[in-house]
Specification:
10 strands, alpha+beta, single chain, about 375 residues, 12 helices
C-alpha cells in the first residue's frame, strides 16, 4: 500500500524537480588572435602536469637500490611465472671495472622486439664494454646519455610509474645500486592501417579514415593543421581499462570554458571499462533522453580538422575509429563532409533536399 500511495502522490501532487547540472557556454572574454597572451586555464593545466611529475613517490612505492628487492616486487606485481606473456630479462652492464646487474621487463605482443633488442639491450650489454669518456659521470647519467639511444626515456622513482609504462606497451629497466627505474616507449602491437572511410564515403576529397590507434588519429589531424597552438591533452578513463583519451583543440580559437568543462566531465567518469567512443558519448552528453545526437561522431580527419578551425573540440578514444566533436548545431547534423569539395550552387541544392526530406520523414505519416 505504501508503494501505491507514493505513486498516487507522485502523479497527483506537484513536486519540484531535481536540479540537473547544466553547462552554458558563454562568450570568451579573451581577445582573439593574440598569441602572446596565455589563458589561465591552460597555465593551470601545465602547472598541474609539472607538479604531478615532480611529486615524490608514496611511502612503500619507492624503487629500491637493491636489484633483488626490485626483482621480487615486479615478479609479485605481474604474477611471474604464472603470467606467460610478461618477459623479464636479466643481464649485466659493465661500468668501469665493475659488472652491474640489471633486468628489463615488458609485455610480449605489445612491444617492438626489434627496438628493444637494437636500442636498449644491445647498447646496454655491448656498448658498455667500451671505455668511459667521462670517468666522473655517474652510472645513472652514463646509462641515459651513452647507453640508451632511444628518443623517449624517462627516469622514475616510483614502482607505479614503471608499472603504468609497462601496462601501456613500454618497458622498464632496473639497475642494481640505483634507486630509480628507466622507462622507454617501445609500443609495437599489430593494428589496422589507414584505410578508406566505410560509412562517410565521398567522391571528391581525401580518402583517409581514422583507425583504432590514438596517436595515429591525432597525427592525421596534426598533419592537416600545422599550427603550434593545436593542443592535445591526454586523459585516462576507466578504473580497469585505463583507456587513453585525448582532448584536441586550437588554443587561441576555442572557448577556454568549453575545454575546461569537457576536461571536468572526462575526469569525473567513474567506470571500470570504456568500450568505445559511442559509450563515452553517452557518459558525457547533456541529457540521455534527447532523440537527436548531441555530438558529431565521424571517421574523417578532414572533417574534424574543419570543425577544430571553427572553435570546436575533438575527443579521441584509443581503440575507436570514430572521433567525437562538440558542440554542434542542427545545421551540423545536415552537413555532409563532401559539401566542402562541391561547388556552391550544387551544395545549396543538396542541402535544401536534405531539409525537405527530413521535414517529410518527420511529419508525414508512415
Amino acid at each position: 500500500m505504501s508503494f501505491i500511495s507514493r505513486q498516487l502522490k507522485k502523479y497527483l501532487f506537484f513536486e519540484e524537480p531535481e536540479k540537473q547540472e547544466k553547462f552554458i557556454l558563454k562568450p570568451d572574454s579573451k581577445p582573439a588572435g593574440n598569441k602572446s597572451q596565455e589563458n589561465d586555464s591552460f597555465e593551470k593545466v601545465k602547472e598541474k602536469k609539472i607538479a604531478e611529475s615532480d611529486q615524490p613517490p608514496e611511502p612503500g612505492d619507492e624503487v629500491k637500490s637493491d636489484i633483488n628487492a626490485n626483482l621480487l616486487h615486479m615478479k609479485d606485481v605481474y604474477s611471474i611465472p604464472v603470467n606467460s606473456d610478461i618477459i623479464l630479462r636479466e643481464f649485466d652492464i659493465v661500468y668501469g671495472c665493475m659488472s652491474v646487474r640489471a633486468f628489463i621487463i615488458f609485455f610480449d605482443g605489445m612491444t617492438d622486439r626489434e627496438v628493444i633488442n637494437n636500442y636498449i639491450l644491445k647498447p646496454l650489454m655491448v656498448n658498455s664494454i667500451m671505455p668511459l669518456k667521462d670517468t666522473a659521470e655517474s652510472l645513472e647519467d652514463y646509462i641515459v646519455r651513452q647507453l640508451m639511444p632511444h628518443c623517449q626515456v624517462s627516469i622514475n622513482k616510483a614502482y607505479k610509474k614503471a608499472v603504468e609504462e609497462v601496462n601501456f606497451g613500454g618497458c622498464a629497466l632496473f639497475v642494481d645500486g640505483l634507486a630509480v627505474c628507466f622507462t622507454a616507449d617501445v609500443k609495437g602491437w599489430d593494428h589496422r592501417g589507414i584505410e578508406k572511410p566505410n560509412n562517410e564515403i565521398i567522391i571528391k576529397g581525401p580518402q583517409e579514415a581514422f583507425n583504432e590507434v590514438l596517436r595515429t588519429n591525432s597525427a592525421q589531424i596534426r598533419k592537416r593543421l600545422k599550427d603550434e597552438d593545436l593542443i592535445v591533452e591526454d586523459v585516462l578513463v576507466g578504473k580497469v581499462s585505463r583507456t587513453p583519451c585525448s582532448i584536441m583543440y586550437i588554443k587561441d580559437v576555442v572557448n577556454e570554458a568549453l575545454v575546461a568543462e569537457i576536461r571536468r566531465r572526462l575526469e569525473g567518469i567513474r567506470v571500470d571499462y570504456l568500450l568505445d567512443a559511442g559509450a563515452l558519448e553517452q557518459l558525457i552528453e547533456d541529457s540521455t533522453i534527447y532523440p537527436s545526437p548531441q555530438m558529431i561522431s565521424t571517421e574523417r580527419p578532414d572533417y574534424v580538422s574543419e570543425l577544430l578551425v571553427s572553435g570546436r573540440v575533438a575527443i579521441i578514444v584509443d581503440g575507436s575509429p570514430n572521433v567525437l566533436v562538440v558542440p554542434i548545431t542542427a545545421y551540423d547534423l545536415m552537413h555532409s563532409p563532401e559539401d566542402n569539395y562541391i561547388r556552391y550552387p550544387y551544395v545549396n541544392l543538396l542541402r535544401y533536399i536534405r531539409y525537405i526530406a527530413g521535414f517529410l520523414a518527420l511529419l508525414l505519416p508512415g
